[in-house]
Amino acid sequence: MSTSGKRPRRLVADRRYSKTAAAKRKPKPKAKPRRKPARRAARRGPLGWIAALVGWVARLIWKTVFRAGVVVLLLLAASVFYVQSTLPPLETILDGRARGSVTLMDRDGAVFALRGDQFGGAVTADSVSVHLKNAVIATEDKRFYRHFGVSPRGVASAVRINMSEGRGPLQGHGGSTITQQTSKLLCLGVVYDPDQWENEKDYISDCRRSSLSRKAKEAIHAMAMEVKYGKDNILSIYLNRAYMGGGAYGAEAASQRYFSKHAAELNPSEAAMIAGLLTAPTRLAPTSNLQRSHDRAATVLRLMNEQGYLSDADTAYWQQNPAQLSDEAEKKTGGYFADWVMQEGPDFFTQDTTEDVVILTTLDQRLQAATEAAVNQVFATKVREGSKAEVAVIVMSSDGAVRAMVGGRRTNVSGLFNRAVQAVRQTGSAFKPFVYATALELGYSPLDRVVDEPFCMNIPGSGQWCPENYTNNYKGRVTLTDALKQSLNIPAVKVSESVGRDLVIRVARDFGIYRDLQDTPAMALGASEATLLEMTGAYAGILNGGSSVTPYGLRELRLRGDNTPLMGTGGGIGERVIQEEAAQQLVWMMEKVISEGTGQRAALPDRPAAGKTGTSQEARDAWFVGFTADYVAGVWMGYDDNTPLTGVTGGGLPAEIWHEVMTRVHDGLPVRPLPMQAPRQVAPEPQPAPQPQPRVQREERRNPVGRAVEEAAESVLQQVLRDILGGN
């Protein structure tokens, strides 16, 4: 093949890129290997090593914490949802009382006292007064509607306060939300099991204990409640179960207890008072200390103002016009009488009842008010300022039904030492009617005579004992009636020794003086001890014709809503102690005590009365016990520490208090004669004084009591006795 003579071109591919593009395109430099952190750290020196180590540890911790946090949150969520699935329906946990209620009614069927755990009925957060709702939130948990059951901010604040005050982190302030407090009230869902707990007190104590594990369980339970019930229902549970003092559980019970109105009707001041009780319900209860309750309510009103629930003007107004107890609330403490009935009744129906119980009592509220007014008047006008002397008064019917009771100078209070039933004191000459009752039962006449003269007895092992009259004067030959009305000691001892101390002891015990009576000659002068209730009941036996009496205050007990009585009265008139004739003659003698003798200050202006004064050794106790045809009343005065009274005898202030009480008690009652019988004969010519005589001679007289005692032929004068007790 021919060519044109040109040299053939080389067989090569066309240039793909221009020379310019090729020039620009340069090969990439070889990548340098990454320096390891250790090498960089080495170049940086020791600080680099430390920084690298810290970074590595931080990254490790972050990864660990994050993963652990996720696990914890998952476990927490699982626990919360599990616990919420076990929570009971809302309706079953509103009534949170540990005990039932006790309602005490007077003789006319009117409620005068409340005891136990009162529950006024279920309320909701929407049905109570908006002021109460706001007051509770402002006081207990201002972020209630913004947290999930637990407030970390509140816990941190509580720990800070506790540590700053030198306590442990969990001691003192708890930082608990309302939800957590409700969880505690529910005992974290643990139901009381008598097989597991020794008593409910231990169960409740365990519910209230604080520990880290307990706080953790409480937090889970609180969050579970938030999931199960929601905010308003939790607040409803809290308002129904929280204890608010005065035996009231829940807002409705507290509202009725203190203000006699429904919880929906509370004004800001009343709502603040109730909300303020949640901090310390027993100490702040207005029935215990109204001023302290007012001070706390003022603080609650301030908190409500700070959180926007009350305006400045409203806050100032309600602070200047604090809530006042209703008349019914002031009366429903029940006082000493209610305390006594609760103590005397069976514990399973009073102190430890789990049912709602109604107790019908013997109390007469008119007589109670009259008794309290009389005591207050005498102490205000006739007792020296600064005196610490105490008083006790009881008014009862002749069958032993107690109508009024005052156990101390502070009237219409509860929970205090009740001197009317708890103070055991020497009776002094108030015991002497039982000596003369024995003599009359044996056939002695009120006009029989005994010689009041210096008298001594030789007591083997003790030496000679010579009793003296209170006035240190002697009257010579006197009748038994004169000896009683002038409270002469020598005749009382002689009569007691003549009839036999064993018989006097038996008669006194049958009348209700059942304590250890001292079998000594001084017994006739009141050396033995008794309570005012026992003495008043024994005198009631004299009034009713000589039959024993058991004082009582409980007439009937039944469950609320059930008209069938579970129990009736445990007291009343018992067996006969002395014959009716002897009792009526003794009443005649005791009437002379008031009309002519040591008890003249007790005389009533419009009706006859009978009684006896009594002053124990060194005037440590002063008594006046007596009766009309309608009522028996006893008065005691003295010091709790046995300090002698100054210028006070049974015929003085006690007789005056008795006079004031009985004058008011009988206001408006028709006059009735005493059941007394004068002696049949005029006093005979002076006879030798009764001397201790063989029991055989005494049996020849009418002596149904003496027949029960073993005959003795020897004199009863030689007896061991203790120191002689003076008295009037």
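[next item in queue]
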Amino acid sequence: MYKYNEFDEAFVRERNRQFANQVERRIDGTLTEEEFRPLRLMNGLYLQLHAYMLRVAIPYGTLDSAKMRQLAMIADKFDKGYGHFTTRQNIQYNWPKLPEVPAILDALADVEMHALQTSGNTIRNVTSDHFAGAAADEIADPRPVAELLRQWSTDHPEFQFLGRKFKFAVGASEHDRAVLRAHDVAVQIVKNDAGETGYKIFVGGGLGRTPMIGKVLTDFLPAKDLLPYCEAILTVYNTLGRRDNKYKARIKITVHENGIDEYRRLVDEQFALIRPTFSGVDQEMLKEIEGHFPAPTYINAPLDAYDAAYEADPVFRAWADTNLSAHKNDNYAIATISIKAHGETPGDATSEQMRVMADLAEEYAHNELRISHEQNVILPHVHKSNLPAIHARLKEHGLATANFGLISDIIACPGMDYCALATARSIPVAQEIALRFDELKLEHEIGELKLKISGCINACGHHHVGHIGILGLDRAGVENYQITLGGDGSENAAVGERAGPGFAYDELVPAIERLIKGYLEVREDASETFIQAYRRLGSAPFKAALYPDATKKNAA
């Protein structure tokens, strides 16, 4: 895990001091809200429906126990005893008081954390694969590359006032767990035919009101060229991108309007000018950063305890089958802690739960945690012999739900319960769907299914890339929910297709139930997932399940 040096410490402390002064000036009226707004956004502070909201960066989703405990302390002392983990691998506090925000930022700095560039028209928190450093299928740990990009982009003088927010993601596996192709720029670590490690670069992805899948800018970029190439991408965007209309200001629109070939030509032209100015300093930075991410010192222990628990305890076996993933060390597993118990708010964790997860990481998981864009918490390095003890502790605190990747493992934005931009509720929809399918006892039979909910067109819930996506809209003052089908955030990235007319709030859960039961009737066998069946059969049988009255009418 990256550790601050003297520069990092001084930089964050000075930024906190500056913002504390700005807060004082806002409180005494020297600054108007209009003047204060861009200053607070540079420090991750939003004004939501009911209160301020502070968004704290968790770079590439990596935490240790000290950081998690500090987040718990902040939740208790400055908020209402919980935090909300987001689809950008951040944490949000929904109820901070403005005079106390500087103290929160200082408390974050005490454990080498901050809220810089978690908002505003700049390069946001760099995200990555939540299994980074542990996944059996990764070429290399992508986090050093993500950290390099974070350091390069932080307070970069040319990229602090872009046309719109800008998002980077880094992955290192063929199976994409970081939704790479939905980012403005994505970096995938790859090997070429000669066995050399480099990068595949995607550009122009994004969701929101104009969802687009990122396009390949280059299939293989030599490792030494990453930062100058990324700088060329941003420089071209900053010069060419639209500023006359904020809805047209994202790089996806720039690439779409100019074409990927022309954008590539301009980047190559700019790259030729920029590359000589780096003189290898970026590679020296990367080498130093890599030293902060050593593999854990794996333990050797018999697996008898795991085998015995798996055979004797069906509850543990169900959790192990659902929430464990393959680790690069066969004696280890990656454990996903679901913070989506049926009926709870997706992404919310209490301070007590945060402390429990911190304790488990320290005792059993080499003191490492990850936050996933799917709003769960990961123990990336767990020896299998420790899994029964971990599961027992999780059960005591409502954290042992065996639903990772299932229909109740829902991504949902805060929606109209908190967000000033939202046009419909997301949280109650997610809660009711989860409770209904728990009641039906169908989710394990259904198998893998990505259901994602957004409360407005900005798509913070990633509904466009859900196998089933739900978008809440306002129709003449009444909530109306559109359903999209066939979206995918993996290496097979696709934007979902709108199924048809929207549903009223009280019609939505029955519609999802009909849809799922329709899928169960048409799938080939229990191994065919929802997305596989959709690709095989097309939308017709799924629409028929959603809109039975229309199907009967057409048949008549």
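[queue empty]
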